[in-house]
Amino acid sequence: MAAKHRAMPLSKLARAGVAGRLAVSSALRKLDPRKRTEEEVWKARGEDFFAACARLKGLPLKLAQMLSQEEELLPEEFRQELSKSCYQSPPMNRALVRRVIEANLGAGPEDLFREFTEIPFAAASVGQVHRATAKDGRKMALKLQYPGIARTVRNDLAMVAGFASALPWLKEVESAWSEVAARMVEELSYLEEARWTAWFRERMDIPGVVVPRVLPEFGSDTVLATEFMEGEHLAEWLAHNPSQADRDALAAALWKVFLHSVYEIGALNADPNPGNFLIRPRPDGPGPELVLLDFGCVKIIPAGFTEKLRGMFARIAKGDPGPDHSLVEEYSRLGTLRIKDPRQDFTDLEVRLRSMGEWVMRPYLGDSGKGGPFDFGAAGDYFRACRTEAWELFRSVKGVEFAPDFVFLDRARYGLYRIFQRLGARLDMANPQEGIP
Fold it and tell me: Which of 322, 351, 388, 403 is deepest in the core (most CB within 10 A)?
């Protein structure tokens, strides 16, 4: 966070120049005359990539956050550098911070607050967060949007393609990336984020899960104030080596939030990276409490789509229907895919759908194969199989089109499973929402 301030480039030309220099530096890393190990080269390339994304902020930084979770897709040294994007970004200088507050709230921080910390304690893709204390003693997190970021987000959708030469795996996350990019345009309105934060706070009635209160009198379209929430990010919490029971409890809470969001309230945080929640001790008993943050990027689940999902899970839970049964036609009837060209040979797709069904059901069957807890910490082969099956399924099939909502939720589920793996959690996945007892 103490990185030296460099002004965020705003023009298309200046931002494209940053992307172009990244591509050149990435290529030169391969030609480095110094004798370096492959791991050192990938670390250096990761440093370059993160530095470029952090300077550009906006969509490029969001891309780095997404890619930081791709353990099978990226070399570990590269991915570790990108993981900084979930928590770190060079901040605005102090003079600019003051101008943003004055322009939006009508006065300087010394007139508005009893205390204001000029150095932000967190930074993200479109804004940075400061500690502040109101005159009446209320402690808050004050999020300030980077000036000019709205223009860059709308322009960057085309520019991000320039990163592909530095990172050829970009095409692997294209389906999820387009969805997140679309949601990110909505994320630019902090008034909308305030509305969603209050909406989730009212509806997230899960024991051990909390959402901060919005303080609307300190808000605008580019400033958001919420009550300050103590807690640690996932990496900090794991550094204390929490008990297996606490790891399992945190995974169970995250799983309940996902199911409740999708099947009961019909809206889901569309950016489920580890920087968007905190962990702290529960005040009412043993175990961790989950603090949910950042509701600027919300995916609304269309009416009726959850019934399609339940139908799909009911089909998968029945097992392989046999070679004479067409899963392509059944999933088409359920609405999870659309047949664009019925003349295509779907033999390979039928095989992949059966294999994918086995992958989806494996955690629900538990380690025993008959139900009960599944050990995500010991499931490295499961995730390797997932990477192979999922991307081959979405990338190579012809003649059909998967419903965008299905692709997005599959991606969100995969990201959640990755957090379970990082926790080393043992979790019983059975739940009434999906009709899996």
Answer: 403
Residue 278 lies in a domain: no
**Do 55 and 122 lie in a common domain?**
no
Contact between 308 and 228 under an 8 Å Cβ cutoff? The reply is no
364 assigned to some structural domain: yes
Residues 206 and 113 in one domain: yes
Identify whether residues 29 and 176 lie together within a single domain: yes
Predicted confidence band of residue 1 (pLDDT cuts 50, 70, 90): very low
Residue 170 and residue 223 share a domain:
no
What does the pLDDT look like over 382-413, one tens digit per residue?
Answer: 877 766 666 666 555 677 777 777 777 877 88
Residue 101: give its domain's CATH number.
3.30.200.20
- Asked if residue 291 belongs to a domain, the reply is no
pLDDT digits (tens, 9 = 90+) for 135-159: 999 999 999 998 887 777 766 765 6
Q: Are residues 17 and 102 in the same domain?
A: no
In single-letter form, the type of residue at position 106 comes to: G
| Residues whose CB falls within 8 Å of the CB of residue 16, separated by 6 or more in sequence, listed in order | 159, 162
Q: What is the pLDDT of residue 182?
A: 65
This prediction's pTM? 0.80
Per-residue model confidence (pLDDT) at position 11: 59
Residues 164 and 244 sit within 8 Å (Cβ to Cβ): no
Q: Is the pLDDT of residue 160 over 70?
A: no
Stretch among 62-76, 155-169, 184-198, 310-324 having the lowest mean pLDDT: 155-169
Contact at 8 Å (CB) between 417 and 383? yes
Tell me which residue range forms the domain holding 178. 12-90+151-184
For residue 221, is it within any domain? Answer: yes
Spatial CB neighbours of 70, under 8 Å, sequence gap ≥ 6? 79, 169, 172, 173
| Banded model confidence at residue 10, pLDDT cuts 50, 70, 90 | low
